[in-house]
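B., you asked whether I could sanity-check this one before it goes into the benchmark set. Here's the sequence:
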Amino acid sequence: MIVDSGVAIALTVFALVVPLRGSKEALNQLLDRTIPDEVQMRFLSVVTKNHTNICEFKAIHTRQSGKDIFIELDIILPFDESMEYKDKLEKKISKEIIDINSNAVPRVYAKACDGKCLDNNKRNCPIHIFRSLNE
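And here's what the prediction gave me:
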């Protein structure tokens, strides 16, 4: 009788362990979690590749939910750039992020700078100066 009770308890514990492990894995898939630093650095490499088109890098926010990796990237562009330029750059950066990880869901937010680089109606924007040197 003691052996039967011991076996019953052991089987019950075993029967509970398997679903608990599965529940933990399922819960990890459902909950948002941060991504490892090395993965985040690969996404940041896109910013460095495009540094000649960006006035300032503000922030990157990343999280993972299931297989999807959500990336929000805030960048600053010259205040006098066109909407077409802004849209092309956002699409280019988004594509480069997806090329790094096909499960990436990027959102690139490009905002205009405050225009403080305009001095006596002369443009001192480092981006435009760099472009004029390379033309």
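One thing to flag: The helical segments are 2-30, 37-49, 83-100, 126-133. Otherwise nothing jumped out at me.
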